[in-house]
Amino acid sequence: METVEEALHRGMQCAKQYRWSAAVEAYRKAIALAPDSVEARFRLGWALWNQAEQEKPTLADMAVAYGAQVLGFEQAARESRRKFQIYRQRLNDAAHYLRSVIERDENHARAHHYLARVLQALDRKAEAEQAARRAATLEPSNAAYTSLAQSFEEDSVRSGRSEGVERWTWDDLVLDPKTKRELRQMQLMLEKPDLARQLGVQPPTGILLKGPPGTGKTTIARVLANEAKCNFFAITPAEINQMYVGESEKRVRDLFARARANPPAIIFIDEIDALLPVRQGGVAIHSDKVVNQFLQEMDGLTVNNRVFVIGATNRPDMIDPALRRGGRLSREIEIPLPDAAARRQLFALCTRHATLAPDVDMDALVEKTEGYSGADIKALVNEAGLQALIRIADSPDRDIPRSLTQADFLAALENLG
């Protein structure tokens, strides 16, 4: 029978030959033999990162995916999307194992460094910068570590961000006053828990944002975290649900442990209906265990540890009822599709950095986009920009105005319709 040392050695031999799939399997075997081995967990996270980089979708893959979607080739589009999904899953798995190393040894500089690179690939820039800085602090003589940390600092200066954190405010959202007031109440309870207690307010442990896709539920959660000055932990069902027995429940425990260790914190779960569906037993026993673990963690939250859970869904009927009772996600806030006035505000917000031609009829665009979500309007404005880009680039007239016209918007509507 293979020992841990032999599995680690086999993994290194595969890694030297750039056979990352085989290396990953060897390191998984090492963890199965010694679940708490820091070295095995680091090597697996490192190998998953390299496997993801080896299989990373190219610009050609992106072009094929976009072209297949535009032309209506659904099978080809699905296959292209699957490549992107596998890539992100590898990165998420790598992040999980590297974090598990840091939980066991917070001074593991290599784990911090590779976690920074993984998070950077996942576009989690604030968390990536924090990990990179930690690695550089632990080993300042390592040129690779200091170089990565400096690259984040330079990027922060160029983009005008403070401390590497993108700033979101309530001004970036178009919501009706009642909804915004409800969200502001949540913000103040997170910001001023002492004042809430003096007023006899029992702060909720979480809220459920429900509404159609594209209405800005994720952005709302980010704004709330920013305005309340909370650490933000975003998770998706794909990052939690794993094929190995007990691994999914452990990821739930790890998520809440990280949040409790960094208060005040907001845990945001997108598509929460896919992670915590109604428990049914039988063949669904795996998902039932995840639901049970999540409910247990939520019951462990108290009003003093300042950890807040936000779930987002467009199918609230599919969520386990126990999650929506008092003391859990008892507060529910509806985020509806924008009405005409809200769509006008969204157009103004999405075109604030664009130059519009005098012929752009905003009233007509608002009327034509009935039933559109905020994400749909943002995509429409972006598509209009692409239409203008090719129109201007192909024009023989070098003095053509560089602006978005009504025709660009109409062409965008036709393409996206």
Give your account of this protein's structure.
By secondary structure, the chain is α/β, with parallel strands linked by helices. The chain folds into 3 domains: 4-159, Alpha Horseshoe (Serine Threonine Protein Phosphatase 5, Tetratricopeptide repeat); 170-334, P-loop containing nucleotide triphosphate hydrolases (Rossmann fold, 3-Layer(aba) Sandwich), CATH 3.40.50.300; 340-416, Helicase, Ruva Protein, domain 3 (Orthogonal Bundle). 60% of the residues lie in helices and 6% in strands. It is built from 19 helices and 5 strands. The protein has a 5-stranded parallel beta sheet, with helices on both faces. The radius of gyration is 24 Å and the shape is globular. The model is unreliable at 156-166 (pLDDT under 50).
What is the strand arrangement across the widest sheet? Answer: 2-3-4-1-5
> For the residues shown, what is the average pLDDT?
84
Structural class: alpha/beta
How large is the radius of gyration?
Answer: 24 Å
Query: Which band does the percent of strand residues land in?
Result: 5-15%
List segments where confidence is low: pLDDT < 50 over at least 5 consecutive residues. 156-166
Main β-sheet description: 5 strands, parallel
Query: What would you give as the CATH superfamily of the largest domain?
Result: P-loop containing nucleotide triphosphate hydrolases
Q: How many DSSP E strands?
A: 5
Shape: globular
- Helix percent reads 55-70%
Distance between the amino and carboxyl termini: 60 Å
| N to C succession of SSEs | HHHHHHHHHHEHEHHEHHEEHHHH
Q: What is the architecture of the largest domain at the second tier of CATH?
A: 3-Layer(aba) Sandwich
